[in-house]
Amino acid sequence: MSRFRKLAWAASAIVIAHLIWLAVWPNARWGFLASQQFQFLAGVLAGIACWRASERSQQYPRMFWQFSAVTFGFWSIASLIDSSYDLLGNGLIDPPLWVALVIFLSTAPMFIAALMGGGKSEERVHWDVILDVAQLLILIVAVHIMLVAIPSMTQSVERGAVHRLILLAAWRGALALALTMRAAFSKSLAIRRLLAPVAAAMSLFAVASSVGNFADRFQIWNEVRWFDLAWTIPFALVAVAASLWRERGRVGVQSELTADSAPVFIIYLPALAIPVILLSLYSTIVFEQVVVGLTAMFVSVAFFTMRVLVAQRRQDQMLQQLANSERRYRRLFEDNMAAVYRSTPDGQITDCNQAFCDMFGYTKEEIANGSAARLYAGGKVEREATLRDLRTHGQQRSVQVAYRRKDGSLIHTLGHRAMVVDRDGMEMIEGTLIDMTQRRSLELQLQQSQKMESLGTMAGGVAHDFNNLLTVIGGYSAMQMANLDANDPNHEYATEIKAASDRAAGLTRQLLAFSRQQVMEERPVILNSLIRDFEKFLRRLVGEDVQLRTSFDLELGTVRTDPGQMEQVLMNLTSNARDAMPLGGTIRIETANVVLNERSLERNPIVVPGGYARLSVSDDGIGMEEATIAHIFEPFFTTKAVGKGTGLGLATTYGIVKQSRGYIEVQSSPGAGSRFDVYLPLIGRDGAGKSGDTRTAVARGTETILLVEDDVQLRSMSVTLLQSCGYNVLTADDPREIEKLCERHGERIDLLLTDVVMPHLSGSEVAKRVAAKVPAIKILFMSGYPTHSKLDRTALEASGSFLQKPFAPAVLAAKVREVLDQELTGQA
């Protein structure tokens, strides 16, 4: 049991004990004094309970319980002194006048607390409380002196006692009325919960104690002094209420009473009783009563004036604080990076910050004069659905909504909105919005990039298997061509097979270029020849409704670049030109030799001077604005509809051109088409020599080669080719067999020719195991993958040899001979 509930049980025990005492010893000699002790104990217990309640309270409840504790403390002290005089004088000696005055004044603190406001104040000295307490004390003392003290000296004792009882009853009634009115009309539920039980107890006390006092004075009772309970029971009820009090949340008293002039007039209204009393006593009034009354009136007026000034000062301070708070929150409202708004259910936006205006592209006047429905992508229908949902659920948190800007573009937002009721009882919608358009665009770009990466991974896997097949087809057809006379009909068939294999290899390179997995393999290239070879593919790419025209500079010089990557550049620029002409048109591809100085190019302020080959791709499509041109080479930037473009084409083109030490320029305007110029540095004007006879002498040798290849057909073709060149070939279809072969043949093995990607063991792991058995062995890797990402770079750098599939037989023979002839630079 908590100590607070113990106080409640103690209060109940005092009441029960008092009842038992009155029932068992109704006419006992000490019955009256015993009742006074029970009343004293109840008062002390009520004071302790009130003080304990103040310790677990804040703001107004804390002050109320403290003042109430003072009330019961004063009453208990005065009651103890009064009972002492009764005990010592056997009821024949009256206590001093000041004891009656203390009893009379004891309820003043609770009366003040009932009318005072609460809340926090920065003032260390609460002058309003001091003035109110002083005013009430002056009033009580003045009335007591005028109606009790002075008459007791000039009139009969009986009449003075009656006046005292009347004043005491009126004063306690005023306290009960103040508590009841405050509890009944307070706007705060917490205040009503605080004051209601105390008001009930003190109302019972006011009525019962008045009846008891008059009954005791005029000896009106029947055997048992039950009216003695008029003090014990109300005080015990207050003790129980204070013991059970628990503060719940904030008590809104500051806004209810503080800085309000109404309590000032309520507290000072009783001061009007002084002139009323003086007028009522005009026939029997004495000089001393006039002096006391007028003095009290003058002091009351002075205190009233000071109290009004204090209240006015407090009100000015609160208004200033309110203005400062309004400015502070208005600044937070306006400077907020999130869009904040407030609107009515019918669509009138009553307030918004600048971020809201910037987000939608309207001025505040335009927003105030327009409907909120125009901002919704779905218009009025969507807003009405939102309004119904808010009225059902009250709020929407972290909701993603698409709105429409003034220029018609969509913006994607993440926001919170709620239906609230303002002070006037009107429904309002309050919300905040964060622009998520860029983030959503990045998320879509990331998804698109991941999709492209997946396609690239798939393309790499397809290329590996496809290149193995092409190596077999091309290898056997090349060997067949080498073994047949040029006039043999079968030689022509083999030639066609070889040509088809080469075209398939070209398609593989295009697939890899599209997926951006082709490795830069720079070599001298004449752009004219590259465009002619790629033109058939480009014509299929643009379709029948677009004309493709080419114009070549016959004296075009040679550049150093990767042909496959330049094909990707051509494909990207041509496909963009096609998309810019949805109704058809003409695409022109031109080449020319140009000389550039440091400031020849508008969008490339620093240019290495010299000769360049210019590749131009132009169209007569819709063109672009300058704002669009400024971003076209940025990754993921696209002007195409969702699903129609990745935003990677021109970014990839820019990267390839830069990697080839070149530059790219764009010229365009709305309705006038676009022109892209690619500048690549010249390395000379000697074109690549024409292909020689396919029966070029093949490099030969007699060394022993360990071939590790999991593809049966490719392994068989490679064995046939190498054996035809005079080499002794050892084969392993399973990489796990290599250690046995190395132990069996030992130092006889001169070269390891291994695929990179195989089941069970990778090519780099095979190389490490073979090198451990045969330290002097040389290594040649081969792979159908477009990059070396699958290859251990340490092993590659140690051997320095790699052969990309598909390869011609002569290329394989030449590469094998090259590796065997080079000096051993390291171990794999």
From TrEMBL:
Enzyme class per UniProt: transferase
The EC number(s) this enzyme carries: 2.7.13.3
MF (Gene Ontology): phosphorelay sensor kinase activity
Keywords: Kinase, Membrane, Phosphoprotein, Transferase, Transmembrane, Transmembrane helix
Family annotation (InterPro entries): CheY-like_superfamily, HATPase_C_sf, HATPase_dom, His_kinase_dom, HisK_dim/P_dom, HisK_dim/P_sf, PAS, PAS-assoc_C
Pfam families reported for this sequence: HATPase_c (PF02518), HisKA (PF00512), PAS_9 (PF13426), Response_reg (PF00072)
Domain of life of the source: Bacteria
Residues in Histidine kinase domain copies: 461-684
Modified residues (4-aspartylphosphate): 755
Coiled coil location: none
The keyword Isomerase belongs to this UniProt entry's keyword annotation: no
Residue stretches making up the Response regulatory domain: 704-820
Name of the protein in its database record: histidine kinase
Organism the protein comes from: Koribacter versatilis (strain Ellin345)
